[in-house]
Every structure is written in C-alpha cells, then in structure tokens.
Amino acid sequence: MSAASSVCAQLRFGVDLGLGIQQLSFSKSVVDTKNRTGFYLGPKIHAKIRKLGLGADVALRYAQKNAAIEVWGPEGTDVYEKEKMSYIEVPLNVRWDITPLKAIGIFVATGPQWDWYLGPSTWESTDQFKATFDHHTLSWNVGLGVIFFKRLHISLSHNFPLTSQGSFLSSTYNTVVQHVEEIDMKSSGWQVGLDFYF
Fold first, then answer.
1. pTM value?
2. Phi, psi of 98 (to 5 degrees)
3. Which residue in 76, 87, 122, 124 is a FRET match for 107, CA 20 to 30 A apart?
4. Domain range annotation of the chain
5. Domain covering 2-197, topology
6. In this structure, are residues 25 and 31 in contact, taking their beta carbons and an 8 Å threshold?
7. In angstroms, what is the C-alpha Rg of the chain?
8. CA 90 – CA 96 distance, rounded (Å)
C-alpha cells in the first residue's frame, strides 16, 4: 500500500462489517452439521491506483462464528451441540473497480485470509465426539460488490478453506458396537459485507 501511494494511489480508511453463514465440513460423512450465522467488524484500509481501478484492501476484524454438530448416541438418540467461536481475521484482497458513473459502480475482489481462533483448542460432548481446532487457518475469498457514492461498498463473497480447521474424533455406533474414527475438519461459508469509507 505504501508503494501504491507513491504512484498517486488513493488511500482510504473505513469500517468493515457484515454477516457470515458458515458450515463445518468433514472428510467423511459421520456427523451432520448445520449452517450457522455469525458476524464480523473491524477497521479497513483500501488503496486504489487512480484511473486504472486496480487496488487492494486489508482489514483487521473480530468475527464471531457459530458452529453446530449433531451425532447419534449409543441408544439411537441424537446429540446436538452448538458453540460460539471467536476469531481475529485478516483478509487481504486485490480489487478491480468499474465505475462508469460517479454515483454507482461495481467491483470484483479476491485474495487470502488469515484467521486466528481465540477459543479453546478442544470441544467435546461426553463420549460421542471430540473436536480439536487449529488456532491458525488460511482460506481464500472470492467476491463481488456494488459501490454507492464512493463511500458505501456492499459485497457478497465466498470463503474457501485452504488449510484444515482441525481434527474431529467421532464415536459412532452400529447397534451396540462402538467405532472411533478421526477425520479432517474444514470451514467454509458466505459473507455479506458492508464497508463505509470516511
């Protein structure tokens, strides 16, 4: 961003907030997961090279994601657990803005995102399952949005996992026989964002 500023780039500061719909996924279908909503909020910096529309933005935000897991117990009953998970997120996106009109425009953006999980390393429910979370994960964002009066940016993006969210140890039952299996766990989801630049 400092290099971009030295070649007559426009540097703007703003607030990044939005809603997310996340889902945990597993390498094998031994449990059921449900889509859960969350939110994020934090400061953001956007740099754009004038007349070209090319630029980049970076944010530092707090995010709360909600996870839900359902497994079957030894007596055929389901065990349902949900947790609130807190993160520090740093998305870094390359953007291309198209603004044929002064009042409205569109943009596309893509780039990596680093997440730091702030919660406990393990999450377990009696003897049915135990999830072990990695505190550092990497993902990739792809999105598009609309620009209103240069200051207000509304976006829709999808977050793809690049690294594992952690491991999941599941105790499944076949009649009265218990089977323990460890599988990989990942997290992906959609984000609806609103940025306001000062």
1. 0.81
2. -120, 110
3. 87
4. 2-197
5. Porin (2.40.160)
6. no
7. 20
8. 19
- For residue 121, give the 3-state DSSP assignment: coil
CA distance 169 to 58: 35
Query: What distance in Å separates the CA atoms of residue 32 and residue 35, rounded to the nearest whole number?
Result: 10
Nearest residue to 139 via CA among 188, 93, 185, 95: 188
How confident is the model over 124-183, as pLDDT tens digits? 766 667 778 888 999 999 999 999 998 999 999 999 999 988 877 766 544 444 455 566
Q: How confident is the model over 82-125, as pLDDT tens digits?
A: 778 899 999 999 999 998 888 899 999 999 999 999 988 887 76
How many angstroms separate the CA atoms of 49 and 6, rounded?
10
Distance between CA 117 and CA 122 in Å, rounded?
12
Grouping H, G, I as helix, E, B as strand and the rest as coil, residue 2 is helix
What does each C-alpha distance from 128 to 31, 84, 170, 178, 183 come to in angstroms? 10, 19, 6, 10, 14
The DSSP annotation for 30-90 comes to SSEE--EEEEEEEEEEEEEETTT-EEEEEE-EEEEEEEEEEEE-TTS-EEEEEEEEEEEEE
CA distance 135 to 140: 17
- CA-CA distances (angstroms) from residue 2 to 16, 41, 61, 88, 133? 21, 24, 21, 24, 35
- How far is Cα 168 from Cα 183, in angstroms, rounded to an integer? 5
Please give the single-letter amino acid code of residue 103: A
Torsion sign, CA atoms 82, 86, 89, 95 = positive
